[in-house]
Amino acid sequence: MNRTRTTVAALAAVGVVTAAQLGLAGAASAAPAVSAKSSGCPIDIVYPTRFYVDHNGWVTNGGLYFGIKSKTSKSFKKVTFTVTNVKNLRFGQATPKGGKISHKTSQTASVYTSTFKGKASLGFKVHTHLLNTRSYKLKFTLHGSGWNCAVNQGTWGS
């Protein structure tokens, strides 16, 4: 009798652990923050706060959107926004918004516009594959003329 109770208790504990693991794997989401933002920069970086990953490690809903948004009505020239893999991310097809894709590899994606008008946005949605859903990182770089922004705009990830 005691042996049966022990077996049932052990199987129940294993079932709870397995259910918890499956729940975490199916709804892998994140709410990471950008670190090291410039203080005098009239540009905000737009990044996802939550996303979901399918069973193969690809981000659902067409990928992740990264971009920049102007906080001022002033226009800027030759603006390039680049996202580079640091750890455990791979990029697929990229779709631009407000400019054109100037460079795209499995490690890097860039969007460019010759004139970034005031109160505008520039960015891209990129199909993203996470090699590890618990540990990933990428960095943002921003080039352009007419502002006081640092080139290195920080990192994003977990």
Describe the structure.
This is Lipoprotein. Keywords: Signal. Residues 1-30 form the signal peptide. There is one protein chain. The chain has one helix at 2-26; strands at 43-46, 64-70, 76-87, 89-97, 100-104, 108-116, 121-130, 137-145, 152-157. It is an alpha+beta fold and 158 residues long. It folds into 2 domains: 1-27; 43-157, Immunoglobulin-like (Sandwich), CATH 2.60.40. A 5-stranded antiparallel beta sheet has the order 5-6-3-8-9, with no helix packed on it. A hairpin with a 6-residue loop joins strand 8 (137-145) and strand 9 (152-157). The N and C termini lie far apart (48 Å). 23% of the residues are buried. The model is unreliable at 8-27 (pLDDT under 50).
Helix-strand blueprint:
Elements: H1 2-26, E1 43-46, E2 64-70, E3 76-87, E4 89-97, E5 100-104, E6 108-116, E7 121-130, E8 137-145, E9 152-157
Antiparallel strand pairs: 1-2, 2-7, 3-6, 3-8, 4-7, 5-6, 8-9
Protein name: Lipoprotein
Keywords: Signal
Organism: Streptomyces naganishii JCM 4654
Strand order of the largest sheet: 5-6-3-8-9
Residue runs with pLDDT of under 50 for 5 or more positions: 8-27
Gap between N and C termini? 48 Å
Q: Approximately how much beta-strand content do the residues carry?
A: 35-45%
CATH hierarchy class name of the largest domain: Mainly Beta
Query: C-alpha Rg, in Å?
Result: 21 Å
Order of SSEs: HEEEEEEEEE
Mean pLDDT: 83
Structural class category: alpha+beta
Stated plainly, the CATH topology of the largest domain is called: Immunoglobulin-like
Number of helices: 1
Largest sheet: 5 strands, antiparallel
> Judging by the overall fold, what is the CATH architecture of the largest domain?
Sandwich
Helix content: 10-25%
Q: What is the overall shape? A: elongated
